[in-house]
Amino acid sequence: MPSINYRTDDLRALVALHACGSFVRAAGQLHITQPAFSRRIAQLELAVDGPLVERTTRKVALTTLGLDLVRQAGPMLAQLDEAVSEARGSARGESGRLAVACITTVVYAVMPPVLKAFQQEYPRLRLHLRDDTGQRVAQAVMAREAEFGIGVLSGLGPALVTEHCVDDPYVIAFAPGHPLERLARVPWRVLSTFRVVALRSTSANRQQMDAALAAAGIAVPWFDEVEHLSSMLGLLRGGVGIGVLPRLALQSAGGSELLTRPLEAPTVVRPVGLLRRQDAVLTEPAQRLWQLLRSHLAGVQAQSAAAC
Predict the structure, then answer these.
(1) pTM for this one?
(2) pLDDT digits (tens, 9 = 90+) for 160-190
(3) Which domains does the chain have, with CATH numbers?
(4) Which of 39, 156, 214, 275 is the most buried (most CB within 10 A)?
C-alpha cells in the first residue's frame, strides 16, 4: 500500500468539525483562524482524494467518507494523546518507572537515605532497582536495561561515561573478641595466621585483591570460600573465621555487629561511582537521582577520609 502524506493536525480539524458542526466554532476550539482551519480540511481531502465535508449556505455536514474517517481516527487520536501524555509524565517523573542498576553493597549502604529524599520529590514514580555485581551493572547500562548505574569504575570500556564518587577500601572484619581487635591497622601479611573466609575466585572483588597482593609479592591468605557476600557476613557474625570485604558492605544488614580494621601494605580500594552510556540523555528524574547519589557518596568519601 503506497504511503499517504497527511498531518494529525488535519485529522484533529475534521474531528473538531464533526463535534462543533461549524467552521467558526471548530476553528475557535483549536485556537486557529478560520482560513487556517479551512486549509487543514482541504489538505486532508487532498490526502484521501475525496470530499469529507458537505458545504452549503445553510449548514456544514460530513460526508459518509468523512464520518467513517472520524469514527476510526477519533479514538486513535485519543489514544495517541494519552500515550504522549504518559510519556511526558514519565519524562517529568510524574508517573512511569525509572530503572537504575546498582552494586548490592551500595544498595544497602547508600540507597535508603537517598531514595527517601528522591521519593519526596517524585512520589508517583516507580523505581526498578537492579542490584547486582559490578560487571552486570555495567552490562545492564550498556543494554539500555537501566538509565544509569552505580558500580565499580574499573575495567569499563570507552562507551561508558563515568563519574568517580568514592574510594571504597577493603577492610578485615571479625566478631568482637578476636585477637585482631587489639590492632589499629592490620597488615595483609598478618592474615596468613588466621582462618580467612574469601569470596569465590570469579568475584570481581576477589580478583582485584588477588591482583593487588600479587603485585606486592604477598601470598593470598584465603582459607574458606563462599559464593555470596551475605553468606560471608553470616559466618563472620557467628564467629566462623574472619573476612576481607569492602567497607560499604559492612553497612548492610547485620554488618554493624562486626568489628573492622583497615588493611595496609598494600592498601586496596575499589573506585565506586556513577556510570551511563556515552549517548544517553537522562530524563529529569534520572538526572535528579544522579545528583542525590553524587552528593551522598561525596559525604561517604569525606567520612572515609576522616576515618583514615
Answers:
(1) 0.77
(2) 999 999 999 999 999 999 999 999 999 999 9
(3) 8-92 (1.10.10.10), 97-166+271-307 (3.40.190.10), 168-269 (3.40.190.290)
(4) 275
